[in-house]
Design a protein that fits this description.
alpha+beta; globular; Nuclear Transport Factor 2, Chain: A; 2 helices
Length: 108
């Protein structure tokens, strides 16, 4: 249970990023659907991940404004495993103006 609005939004955003399509009953298209992207060619994966995140946030959490995204894979950081991507989001909540960051790892 969260004590602040920003903590609740941060948890909800993390759930959205880590959920793939088909994992939620009734809302089959809920989530950013990032895990399937890890099995595709790596040449433009960062762009596809950014597009998926932006689309999911726009649809499911329109009150969140993404300020910036930092997406890293094995080419950027040797501590990241194959078929893993780390995403750091800097965002604000429209109604409150509060800003926060969230970092998640997506693994295949």
């Amino acid at each position: 249970m969260n004590e602040t609005t920003i903590d609740a939004v941060k948890d909800d955003l993390k759930i959205l990023l880590l959920t793939n399509h088909g994992e939620r009953l009734i809302h089959h298209d809920f989530g950013a659907n990032l895990k399937p992207l890890l099995f595709e060619p790596m040449n433009d994966i960062k762009e596809r991940i950014a597009d998926s995140i932006s689309s999911a946030v726009e649809k499911w959490m329109p009150f969140v404004n993404i300020k910036s995204m930092d997406i890293k894979d094995t080419r950027d950081d040797s501590s990241i495993r194959d078929n893993e991507v780390r995403v750091k989001l800097f965002f604000s909540v429209a109604a409150t103006g509060l800003e926060e960051q969230l970092e998640v790892s997506i693994r295949a």
